Amino acid sequence: MPLGERGGWDKSESRYCGLETDFNDDMPNLLSFNLSTAGFDFLLATLMDPTYRPSLMESSSNGACVLPFAGSDLVLSPSQWSSHVVGKISSWIDLDSEDEILRMDSETTLKQEIAWATHLSLQACLLPSPKGASCANYARCVNQILQGLNSMQLWLRIPLEKTDDDSVDSDQTIDSWELWNSFRHLCEHHSQLSVALNVLSSLPSANSLGRWFGEPVRAALINTDSFLTNARGYPCLSRRHQKLITGFFNHSIQIVISGKSVHSLPGASLDSAANHTDAQRHPLRPYLDYVAYLYQRMDPLPEQERFEHGYRDFLQSPLQPLMDNLEAQTYETFEKDCVKYIQYQRAISKALLDRVPDEEASSLTTVLMVVGAGRGPLVRASLQAAEETGRKLKVYAVEKNPNAVVTLHSLVKLESWENIVTIVSCDMRHWDAPEKADILVSELLGSFGDNELSPECLDGAQRFLKQDGISIPSSYTSFIQPVTASKLYNDVKSHKDLVHFETAYVVKLHSVAKLAPSQPVFTFTHPNFSTKKSNQRYKRLRFEIPSDTGSAIVHGFAGYFDAILYKDVHLGIEPSTATPNMFSWFAIFFPLRTPVCIRPGSSIEVHFWRCCGSSKVWYEWCVASPCQSPIHNSNGRSYWVGL
Amino acid sequence: MPLGERGGWDKSESRYCGLETDFNDDMPNLLSFNLSTAGFDFLLATLMDPTYRPSLMESSSNGACVLPFAGSDLVLSPSQWSSHVVGKISSWIDLDSEDEILRMDSETTLKQEIAWATHLSLQACLLPSPKGASCANYARCVNQILQGLNSMQLWLRIPLEKTDDDSVDSDQTIDSWELWNSFRHLCEHHSQLSVALNVLSSLPSANSLGRWFGEPVRAALINTDSFLTNARGYPCLSRRHQKLITGFFNHSIQIVISGKSVHSLPGASLDSAANHTDAQRHPLRPYLDYVAYLYQRMDPLPEQERFEHGYRDFLQSPLQPLMDNLEAQTYETFEKDCVKYIQYQRAISKALLDRVPDEEASSLTTVLMVVGAGRGPLVRASLQAAEETGRKLKVYAVEKNPNAVVTLHSLVKLESWENIVTIVSCDMRHWDAPEKADILVSELLGSFGDNELSPECLDGAQRFLKQDGISIPSSYTSFIQPVTASKLYNDVKSHKDLVHFETAYVVKLHSVAKLAPSQPVFTFTHPNFSTKKSNQRYKRLRFEIPSDTGSAIVHGFAGYFDAILYKDVHLGIEPSTATPNMFSWFAIFFPLRTPVCIRPGSSIEVHFWRCCGSSKVWYEWCVASPCQSPIHNSNGRSYWVGL
Fold first, then answer.
1. Which positions fall inside the PRMT5 TIM barrel domain (chains A, B) (predicted)?
2. Distance in Å, alpha carbon of A594 to nearest chain B alpha carbon
3. CB burial class (10 A; 0-12, 13-18, 19+) of residue A85?
4. Which chain A residue shows the shortest CA-CA distance from B187?
């Protein structure tokens, strides 16, 4: 039974709560008590008798012995097995032990249990946490299993904070993220290997926790002893724990209650008989209730987030509006972004007021050209700005897409703008304008600012801007920041070619850990009448990863832009200054062919180039420190924007 | 004119000597003076007037200006250009300068000069050394050039020892190898990017120098001021320099004399008129003469090295003698290896003496079985051992290859061994022997010891060995060591697939830098009558790189074996204990998918597994430190040996 409804939430976004149980060979009863009676949604159930050791079996039994699994496959229906049981692999296994017998027993048992779980069509198995700092043999064995696995997921249990009990030097706390990082590197970032985080009573720093949201975390096991007790004696969680659980809900991470009840439940016995059901007698029911309460009290998703929900972490190729003509559907979508046009209208109003003093408002007509007018939203914003400021306007609407021009014509007719608006069906780079403009309005920005070739287009268009004319936008800057993004990395990798690793993608970033604040990359200012101007750019950036993050892995760079439309009116998606409620742009993602590991408190140096050829513009990028990556996308061989 | 002949050397192995010259627009005279007159073989000649700067050219000249190259393409014949001139790119270029104009000028000039060199069909161009510690923009530009280059090589000039002149902190000497390593990483190990080492008067440590022999060094520029003066006033080199130059000769690295004459050449003017030719008047001729002298006095290549010369650094797939039957040619080659059979004969003799006391020599017949008898060399060695020791022998020669059995039969007939030798045409794992053996002789070893499945074969064969019987070999151990091997890495990479990166190759290692002494990996002992024995193995090794090596790159692991035939008689290819003059085995090479960089004085941890399935045996390997590699060859998906 899901954790109840959350306002404005899609049914498909229901969240469930599981329970970790000990070995019990009466599976039907185990399910009945914990699910039907207590209300948990699934069990994390031990599959094999924990006393089993292959080396202790009679080798002479010659096929007569039966492996001590918890019941046969027939004790539950196939759908019960697959929907309600996640298999828990024997926790005693230790493939990196010094003891060779234990190592051999562990490998045999692990393979037998996975084979059994596969036979039962379980959706996932929980692998016990690696015992020591080294996990190569464990990873080798799991990697072998992954090569031939059906669709089952393997969840590697990782304690959120791990202290090395064996270590004499008490400073030597192992960063458990590093354990995961080693393991998944050894297993080549296999997409069926994911994490089950074990949440304990103490939590690492927020930066350290943040890394996990870029990782494939599928479940969070909350130990009962990480709960506090509220005034009425019921379990509750610290504010930091609550925030973490909310993060898990937001990232579709399953919650699992683990451990024995540590609360005496005063309420249960005092409740009135009417409410006193079996369910409430289950000792762990109060923990489930509390998790459900946390879920239900979450704020509903805002409209924009709901709209963008389906795009989360989904890689899209950036538009090529210069080479390709946009489709009606695309115009339709972008024109709905009121916030953007309000910002344009504010910028145009300010420019009109600056350009035309009040006393000349009725005599002076400002020539405004919208270059890349599309189906007309910026024409409308311009006319509204004129009306708002009481300035007289003459508008040229220049658009290269003949299909959009059709719509533009009917808009002008419909709105009776014929005397004010002249439609020009032409590429702005080639138009022979009949007069010069006071204001040049354009919206040619991509997620990374210049990546839809706004600089090249406006270089062409500024021919018909007066020397003292205004360009809206007057400048724009791209930004990047290093991110952990396992999901994106695996999606890129799944294409198994170089091209996809050297391509930038438009993507609604969600399961991503941002490792350092973003920094500016390239800036373009318009108009730029310098004779020596070039649109080539080269930038070298160094990002310091906060030392309390611990080690981190960089799968690539998230890119954004911020545009100054006019004076203090800006527009952008750079996280710290992003224009609220604007949905026209997702971020851009530049992948790295090989993820880069960063040591605690250390930095990553990255170089970005914007290169221009005769028929295309492209980016190249590389990491120079802590290790050198190859230069990505040399000569734009994999990804480029056509002129 | 080559540097003369070296004893026992192939003509194709002639060595040449070049000369670095300053800019001179009279190319014909430059060639005539330095090559025809003085005797150098080629010039490293500046292509462009060093005062040229693109930004200083009149931008209004509108195509009227000519780039200031050293003469037109017509001043030399095409073959003169391509055989006698290596282009030297303007040494002032600095693509990583803070000065943007200089950066832009540098990029423009570099591209113009490379285009000119391509036009002239030069075989190579020398790129100036990166100016500072950072070289990303330089590498980006060179990488762009490499993407579209014809067959021309680019030699990056790297000083053998570089001190950072700009550095305030005098301890901060830059390891110039790191500069090269950064550059080539950024350029993805491109096969046309190589090194021209600039040898100066001081040399780094032997370990530091050793790294370069695993790199694609094409030329060594010897500065005249690195020469000393001998008693007669002539230039000569220190012993360490001499040794280095000899190393260059052995690795086909071209020598280039660089700089002005710093010796007053007393001999030149005192020489008798008869010898007083123009050639001797060239101020740099004594340097050339000295280099030629060093070449000519080198020892001739030993017979075995000459035989193996053609196999140097050439990747071969290991034999699969168990799955495939060897061909006659293969038997022919291996049977020529006298040294190997002498060792076997010594081992068998010792075993016979131990087994049969002198007093029973005439009464006791020892049963000896040669398993994998091939065409009979071990049968012969056994009979010779019997003769040598005066022991009586009964020999069974077991061979699975029916084609080899044909030869075996005729050998036995030819040598009249019919009464002593019984031929058994059967796989040793399935043979039902009529009696048990005292001595089991086999030679089933691969370059990595167990990699041709000797353990599995002998497990099958030991059924018919007496409980107190002797196996020859009695044990064997594999060894590995980390190596720099650019050539091998690039050859593996050229296949552009995963399979080749997860395959072990048999290879005559030559252009390889061995970074640490080899360490034992897996040992097998025979006979092994334990009931719990397994041929699976797991080994974790840590190699310390000597701290005076500096940083290093590991492209993979060189593998060897050593076998104890009997007591103190061993046989093997592990470098420190290798059996001299034995040529049956080259080393084995396990590549890494991503080369691993090791910081100075640091170590590399590697894990190797020998895994056994029902129909195959395979290795898996990974690097666990300083960073995690993926596990290579999981489940033997890329490389395995069939049972």
1. 39-297
2. 9
3. buried
4. A630
As to burial, measured by CB atoms within 10 angstroms (0-12 exposed, 13-18 middle, 19+ buried), residue B402 is: exposed
The yes-or-no verdict on residue B388 having pLDDT over 70 is yes
Domain with B243, as residue range(s), is 11-53+66-224+236-258+288-301
> Tokens representing B425?
């045409």
CATH assignment of the domain containing A96: 3.20.20.150
Query: DSSP E strands: which ranges in A388-504?
Result: 392-399, 421-425, 437-442, 465-472, 475-484
Q: Are A628 and B103 an interchain contact pair (Cβ–Cβ within 8 Å)?
A: no
Task: Judge if B21 and B164 occupy the same domain.
Answer: yes
Interchain CB distance below 8 Å, A627 and B185: yes
Among B533, B628, B632, the residue to mutate for chain A (most A Cβ within 10 A)? B628
Q: Report yes or no on B499 lying in a domain.
A: yes
CB distance B631–A139 less than 8 Å?
A: yes
The whole-number pLDDT of residue B426 equals 93
Lowest-pLDDT choice from B6-10, B157-161, B420-424: B6-10
Q: Are strands A587-598 and A569-572 parallel, antiparallel or unpaired?
A: unpaired
CATH code: domain of residue A532 = 2.70.160.11
Quick check: B188 contacting A, CB < 8 Å?
Answer: yes
B133 Cβ under 8 Å from any chain A Cβ: no
Quick one: pLDDT at residue A11? Answer: 53
Q: Is the pLDDT of residue A274 over 60?
A: no
The answer to whether A582 faces chain B, any CB pair under 8 Å, is no
Mutate one of A59, A137, A141, A185 to test the B interface: name it (highest B CB count within 10 A): A185
* Chain A residues with beta carbon closer than 8 angstroms to that of B634: 140, 143-144, 146-147
Both A267 and A384 in one domain: the answer is: no
Q: Is A631 in contact with B137 (Cβ distance < 8 A)?
A: no
What percentage of chain A has pLDDT greater than the value 70? 93
Give the model's confidence band at B309: pLDDT under 50 very low, under 70 low, under 90 confident, else very high: confident
Are B294 and B212 part of one and the same domain? yes
Query: Mind listing the pLDDT tens digit for each residue in A130-186?
Result: 998 889 999 999 999 999 999 999 999 999 976 545 544 445 567 899 999 999 999
Within this chain, do residues B438 and B550 fall inside the same structural domain, yes or no? no
Tell me, yes or no, whether B306 lies in a domain.
Answer: no
Is A620 near chain B, with CB under 8 Å?
yes
Distance from CA of B496 to the nearest CA of A (A): 10
Interface contact A538, partner B, CB < 8 A = yes
- CATH (domain of B377): 3.40.50.150
Q: Do both A621 and A496 map to the same domain?
A: yes
Which residue among A136, A624, A631 sits closest to B143, beta carbon to beta carbon? Answer: A631
pLDDT of residue A340: 96
A624 contacts B136? CB cut-off 8 A: yes
| Residue ranges at the known binding site of A for S-adenosyl-L-methionine | 331, 340-341, 399, 427-428
A3-38 as b/e, with b when 16 or more CB fall inside 10 Å?
beebeebeeebebebbbbbebbeebeebbebbbebb
Residue B443 annotated in active site: yes
Q: Is residue B205, in this structure, part of any structural domain at all?
A: yes
In DSSP notation, B125-178 reads: EEEPPPSSS--HHHHHHHHHHHHT--S-EEEEEEESSEE-TT-SSTT-EE-HHH
pLDDT at site B172: 55
Instruction: For Cα atoms A305, A311, A314, give the angle at the middle one, nearest 5 degrees.
Output: 140
Same domain (yes/no): A342, A294:
no
Number of domains in chain A: 3
- Catalytic residue, chosen from B107, B215, B452, B456, is B452
Query: How far is residue B503's CA from residue B196's CA, in Å, rounded to a whole number?
Result: 31
Instruction: State whether A82 and A129 are in the same domain.
Output: yes
Residues B399 and B527 reside in one and the same domain:
no
Is the pLDDT at A266 greater than 50? The verdict is yes
